[in-house]
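haha ok so turns out i had the wrong file open the whole time. this is the CORRECT one, sorry everyone. sequence first:
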Amino acid sequence: MIKYPLISIVMVNYNGLHFLKACLPTIYKNNYPRFELILVDNNSKDNSVQYIEQRFPQIKIVQNKKNEGFAEANNIGYSKSKGKYILFLNNDTKVTKNFLSELVKGFDDNKKIAGFQSKILLMDDLRYLDSVGSFLTHSGFLYHYGANKRDSKKYNKQIPIFSAKGASMVFRKDVLEKTSLNGNVFDSDYFAYFEETDLCHRIWLAGFNIEYLPTALIYHKGGGTSRNMDSSFIQYHSFKNRINTYIKNLSFKTLLWYIPFHLCMVEIFALFSLLRLNMPMFFTLQKAIAWNVFTLKHTLKKRQQVQLHIRKISDRELFSQVMVKVGLSYYLDLPFGLKRFKDLDLQK
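then structure:
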């Protein structure tokens, strides 16, 4: 008799009714027989909950009284999960028929693999990739492999990645339990952005791998909820959380050079914003740095947990697997979506 381990799908929703109408039917058309879907609603005002209750009564709905953000809402959904594998899936996606089956199959081959990012194509143009996954660079900014690139055979190879994209990533629950912070999968101080990279960083430090799985395919609208957010709000949380992640997760020796270099890069970006008279962005970046200064004592407590109880490998071991070197052209094209940047050859 074939055993089908339970997959728990955790989905966060905030006024995403138009996305849910396209997403949910594709999930229930997949060919994997055992899964549960936990939808955490961040106090939507567009009748999302009523729609689900009427059309998909099998879905477990958690209704928050306020918008808890992406990270904390996923933590809430995770706390309700019962599956062996936990899939974090955005509401602005559509999945293919064998998507879940391929994810489960991927775990059969290597017990050291803790999680996967699926292959993600852009819903508006299926010829192009959303992302294959992200890698560390010496600057602290991530290298987004395959971002906005035309799909081709070279993106059909399973490879290790540093960070999965939060739109579609699956993990073994036992590993999530080993790498949680104060019982939370995602850092509860992160409202949104970079929370998946922080989690993936901890998973790598614990001695596990994360890989890109091209046989598990989804389509992603991209920026569904964030399209209604102010750019300064997005950049604030992105920069704030990136700095905080490195303070918590890097070794002390690495911190001595990595954080100063990254902060220099941030200030260069801030200066560039100032020269363009983009004052909101300039002050947003200073605010992101200031937040990390004022909350340093709290961050150091979490850092102690990571370094003493989660870390199993050195930064040197980690960097040898997930750090890449990129030139100036990458950073110049990064603000414009990397459409002109030629990808590194990482499929060797």
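The CA atoms of residues 87 and 127 lie 25 Å apart.
again sry for the mixup
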